[in-house]
Amino acid sequence: MPDPGAGEVLVRNMWTSVDPALRLRLRERAPRGYFAAFALGEPMAGISTVGEVVASRAPGFAPGDVVRHGAGWCDYAVVRAGAESLGGIATLTRLDVDAAPPEAYLGALGASGLTAYAGLFHVAELREGDIVWVSAAAGSVGSLVAQLAKLRGHRVIGSAGSDEKVRYLLGTLGLDAAFNYKHGALSELLGAAAPDGIDVYFDNVGGDHLEAALGALRKRGRIAMCGSISEYDAPEPVPGPSNLFLVVANELTLRGFRGSSYVALLDEMVREVGGWLRGGRIRYEQTVVDGLENAPEALARLLRGDATGKMLVRIV
Amino acid sequence: MPDPGAGEVLVRNMWTSVDPALRLRLRERAPRGYFAAFALGEPMAGISTVGEVVASRAPGFAPGDVVRHGAGWCDYAVVRAGAESLGGIATLTRLDVDAAPPEAYLGALGASGLTAYAGLFHVAELREGDIVWVSAAAGSVGSLVAQLAKLRGHRVIGSAGSDEKVRYLLGTLGLDAAFNYKHGALSELLGAAAPDGIDVYFDNVGGDHLEAALGALRKRGRIAMCGSISEYDAPEPVPGPSNLFLVVANELTLRGFRGSSYVALLDEMVREVGGWLRGGRIRYEQTVVDGLENAPEALARLLRGDATGKMLVRIV
Questions:
Q1: Which of A150, A295, A141 is nearest to A227 (CA)?
Q2: Which residue from A197, B22, B30, B219 has the fewest beta carbons nearer than 10 Å?
């Protein structure tokens, strides 16, 4: 175990995050502009993680503090205070564990919450009366997006890959419509759920979901492009939608984004979403896998669609 | 020849417009949200046209006035004053033929000018220092976009489909770089012309051009999606780019638009672009085909890439 140097803390990690997009870094090269690929033979570093400080030589951090950092999948980590990690989201931060349990800061009160909040309100520019479709709506980001839109009074359609998730979307989250995308042609399933079309599509899936959204978006509709889980594990690049001319015809806007670019909104999001969570107005599921040695399998499960809400690994 | 009714004028048409996107209306159904398909056995109506009023029962219009309207490919047309046509661009308007020749109001001072002006400044949100790539840059819209960006001091790369057009882009329009997209892999040609990447892509072509742009756009780059001539004549829907994840990774914005939505900018555009044209700071080519009976062949030529600047049909 290394000792922390000046300005560093030693953290015993408790929880770490499993995100679909980690798959993009398990390649020789990650997509241009994205976080770097993981190095072979090295720990999976650069992943949001929560732990307890066991030794500190950094002002403002003391043993016993629960912190978030970006050192990633390891039992212990030496972390330098102030060093930017994951665009600021996972820069060493002390967490308020009276307000929420530590692991919440990896999900609803962390990157997932920020991505949902910034994506819906700032990227998709949600406007009064918008009809919203969220894909992977039972997932960590999607379930928050769907509920934030419901809280603002919108008609919200969710899609997911199992009937159980669809029951969760309708029964627990109270969405206006939901469908299992495996049950037919997407354009028909979406058309039945949103017969008047949609104004906003929050894209977590890409591929055929994106194509169906283009087919349903009304004039000046918007897509917040958050991720494309359907393509991450594909052996070959997946062709894009063949109906892109509809972007011109209907003056659509497709905007890609990264939650990390909106870190300035993090405190505001934690206040608002944290309040709704405590008040029971937002529900949030977690799928917990025990043991760091099971983290790879947790990622594989997530990519197979075998998880609801946030996938977490409990390290200790 | 019908007589104009109350509020109508009879126009003898002089010039009409040939646009690549007319091809989209030569189908059983035009793309959802686009202008309607042309009806079989009917005149090609809903196309910007310029002519001379020969009889008027509309206040404010007198015989001898040169006007623009949207009645389309016909020798004479009865047009109702004030009836909106083509989103307002081709609503009956008297033209200032002292400031520019009549046919200019179908190109640089009409829909092409408005599309270029709105697309570059409002849709792509051109910012200081942006490196700009324009496809179909020897075309009616593209040549204006490229020159407007040059006038603002930007580095501008143009592409086209012949060496002669490339010489025009470099020699006459003074672009910083230009290439013939038929001379190799697009990503390599673009990479050589823009080794540091691009910030704005003005898309007139779609398909492989759009894919190459996604590969070259820097962080927060923007695409103004104006059209996709490469796909209009395709027998089957053309798959989209397989590198759409770069939209997420680099936080790109793709925005489709129609010039007709920016008709509020028409007067401003005519003033500015008209001034630059008269001052010789903007060059503008026209390809003229004589005789309305040759309009279909003019469209076919345009879709083959066999035209520089604006394709016009001289009716009389």
A1: A141
A2: B219
User: How far is the C-alpha of A248 from the C-alpha of B210, rounded, in Å?
Assistant: 13
User: Domain range spanning residue B13?
Assistant: 8-107+286-314
Q: Say if CB B77 and CB B71 are below 8 A apart.
A: yes
A251/B261 Cβ within 8 A: yes
Residue of A nearest to B254 (CA): A254
β-pair partners for A160? A180
Query: Which CATH number is A238's domain given?
Result: 3.40.50.720
Q: Which pair of structure tokens corresponds to residue B225?
A: 């999606």
What ipTM was estimated for this complex? Answer: 0.97
Tokens 């040549």 correspond to what residue? B143
A138 within some domain: yes
pLDDT value, residue A296: 96
Out of A31, A252, A256, whose CB is closest to B251? A256
- B45 and B145 together in one domain: no
**Final residue of a structural domain among B259, B278, B297:** B259
pLDDT band per the 50, 70, 90 thresholds, residue B1? confident
CB contact under 8 A, A255 and B254: yes
Residue B95: name the closest of B108, B86, B83 by CA. Answer: B108
Number of domains chain A is built from: 2
A242 and A302, same domain (yes or no): no
Chain A closest CA to B27's CA: distance in Å?
15
Same domain, B201 and B61: no
Angle at B47 between CA B46 and CA B49, to 5 degrees: 125
Runs of H (alpha helix) within B173-251: 186-193, 207-216, 229-232, 245-249
CATH code, domain carrying A299: 3.90.180.10
Closest in A228, A240, A251 to B239, CB measured: A240
Instruction: Work out the end-to-end distance of chain A between its first and last CA atoms, rounded to an integer number of angstroms.
Output: 17
B residues 199-228 near A, CB within 8 Å?
Answer: 206, 210, 215, 219, 225-228
B309 in a structural domain: yes
Q: Is B172 found in the same domain as B232?
A: yes
pLDDT at site B155: 98
Q: What is the mean pLDDT of residues B217-241?
A: 95
How far B171 CA lies from chain A's nearest CA (Å)?
A: 31
Residues A131 and A254 in one domain: yes
pLDDT at B200 over 90: yes
In terms of domains, do A102 and A118 share one?
no
**Residue B277, domain member (yes or no):** no
How far A112 CA sits from the closest chain B CA (Å)? Answer: 15
Q: Cβ separation of B244 and A210 shorter than 8 Å?
A: yes
Same domain, B67 and B167: no
B202 contacts B226 by C-beta, under 8 angstroms = yes
Give residue-wise pLDDT tens across range B131-173.
Answer: 999 999 999 999 999 999 999 999 999 999 999 999 999 999 9
Mutate which of A233, A245, A246 to disrupt the B interface (most B C-beta within 10 Å)?
A245
Q: By the CB < 8 Å criterion, does A250 face chain B?
A: yes
Under an 8 A CB cutoff, do A246 and B32 touch? yes
B201 assigned to some structural domain: yes
Percent of chain A with pLDDT over 70: 100
Residues of A in contact with B20 (CB under 8 A): none
* Dihedral over alpha carbons A128, A132, A137, A139 (to 10 degrees): -50
Indicate yes or no: CB of A240 within 8 angstroms of CB of B238.
no
A206 and A254 part of one domain: yes
